[in-house]
Amino acid sequence: MQLSFLKKIFLLSFTTLLLAISGLKAQKLVEINDSIPQHIFTFKEIEFFEDAKNEFTFEQIKSKKFDQKFKGSISSTPQTKNLNKTYWFRIKIKNNEKARKPFLLEFFDQTIDQITAYIPQSDQRYKIENLGDANVFNKRLIHHKNFEVPIQNDGNDAQVYYFKISSSQIADVIIVLRSAEWFISYALDEYFYFGIFYGMILVFSFYNLIMFIAIRQKQYLYYVLYNLSVGFFEMSSDGIAYQYLWPNSPVWNQVAYAFALCATSIFALLFTRELLFVKAKAPKLNQLIVGVIVMRLIFFAYCYLFDQTLFSFKFIEAIPLAVAFFTGVYIYKNGYQPARFFVLGYSFLFLGFAMKFLIMLGFSWLNFGVVSYYSLSFCFVLEMVFLSFAIGDKVRLLKLKKDKAQQKIIRQMAINAKLKDTVNQELESKVEERTREVYHKSIIIESKNQALEEANALLQKQAEEISRMNVLLEQDNEELQTSVEKVTRDRVMNTEVDFEEFSKIYPDKETCYEFLAELKWNKGYHCRKCSNDHYFSGHILHSRRCSKCGYEESVTTYTIFHNTRIPINKAFYMIFLIYSSKGKISSHKLSELLSIRQSTCWTFGTRIKKVMDDRKKTLKKGGKNGWSQLVIE
């Protein structure tokens, strides 16, 4: 009896031990309860399995064969540390038919690229939902920056939820069970604080933009661009930008944060240079800042063009942050007072980066709630405030320096005024002495000036008489010259003269062309192509080009001189000789007088005589200038 009793005790103890051991390995169950508005799955409540090659189907994953391959999370927040690899996660939820509130599952990390949720149904089947920021925003079940999955609470059974996750960044798989009531309250509060945060960024940016427009100092512009870059990065990171700015651009959403982060670092360093006068106060640090900016741009270009997975290493921004922070400390130690607020602001920002970095390294005790999750955003706000103080302090110090400089100028002006009065007194005394000397000399000079004025008056009368005589002589000369020209022209036109005397009237090509132009267009210009009355000067001497059709007519076109090779003034003389002799002069005589070949004289002379025959009646009324009527064809 004792032996059988001992066996029963042993079997009972062994069974209890096995149940305890199996209980330690079993996944913890989370029960739906109206009294608990939310529950974050941590440690063994969430199990995972890495499917590096993405070779298993959901049917395989949920089979008993894979049941032992899932492992409980050893940290409060599991992560997908292998980029672009597939992970399977599962959680167990016990339904509670007594619960009256609707519940849902929410993923906190908005940067997860792909989430395939397998949601158990009451008929033992699974409903598949595709989530993740690689999908168009409007396809989400609930239009919220996070990913939400409504769940069915039918009966009291325990159900297993599976999630297939892959991401190009290290993703925090934070799964929260929430009541819909709590979710709405939390979401409204969160969006309210987002509005305050982004509103502060816009207010700070708008104020400093106005300051830049008013003062034209680059530090304000860089500060505005830095603030906007911070806001752009925060919106890209927390999903607000994807919800409101580019909901239909998932490809851009994958890299938008990288552009914002790069711009944040660059404008932060540029702002540091301008605010702290780094170029003048620390030339070597200025070179370091320029080098960091160049290297940051090169790294960004390499990541964007060749390996975008490198964008996930966000903590490389610690380098430009450390450079800016060290620069502020160095400038402050060298006595520049506005740097104290700059150092204080960057201290908070550095603290936020450090907390995020430690959380990423696995210090889960730092991840204690909303404050730690949004620690970087809080630090950005504090940094904005203190950087604004730094800018204001810089303006204050510049105003003090300006006031001191003005006071110094006023004191110097007072000293200059005293010195000016002393010098003026000395000059006045010397001027009085010099005035007396000049007065005695002026009496002597005045008497001599009076004699000179009398002599000048006499000379002026004589000059006026000479001018009057010169005017009379000029008039006589003009009348005489006009008479000579008239006599010469009349003689030439009515008598037989030689070429030398004829050339006095038409001495060169320009004179002949001028005569032809007056003869051709004395009644006005009319284009022979389009009858237009307006013209411009042409490319050839005295030619005219139509302002409408562009036709250009030379001065010899449509005259007896067109296409003749005889010099124009000799051609004029030949016409005059033939006209004066009534066509009786021979070609040999013309050749002798003009020094032109006889054949040329015969050809051109025959042409002139033909025109004379055709115009006999007109030539009889031509008078002394009748030869000119042979010119126009």
Characterization of the model:
- The protein is of the alpha+beta class and 633 residues long.
- The protein has 3 domains: 27-180, Immunoglobulin-like, CATH 2.60.40.2380; 187-399, Rhopdopsin 7-helix transmembrane proteins (Up-down Bundle), CATH 1.20.1070; 499-630, no CATH class.
- It contains 18 helices and 16 strands.
- The strands form 4 sheets. Strands 1, 3, 4, 6, 8, 9 and 11 form a 7-stranded mixed β-sheet that branches. Strands 2-13-7-10 form a 4-stranded antiparallel β-sheet. Strands 14-15-16 form a 3-stranded antiparallel β-sheet, with no helix packed on it.
Low-confidence stretches: 1-24, 490-495
Structural class: alpha+beta
Tally of DSSP β-strands: 16
CATH architecture of the largest domain: Up-down Bundle
* Count of DSSP H/I helices: 18
The radius of gyration over CA amounts to 54 Å
Helix amount: 55-70%
Biggest sheet architecture: 7 strands, mixed
Question: Which word captures the global form?
Answer: elongated
Mean pLDDT: 80
CATH topology of the largest domain: the name is Rhopdopsin 7-helix transmembrane proteins
Q: How widely separated are the two ends?
A: 160 Å
Tally the structural domains: 3
Into which percentage range does the β-strand content fall? 5-15%
Q: Can you tell me the CATH class of the largest domain?
A: Mainly Alpha
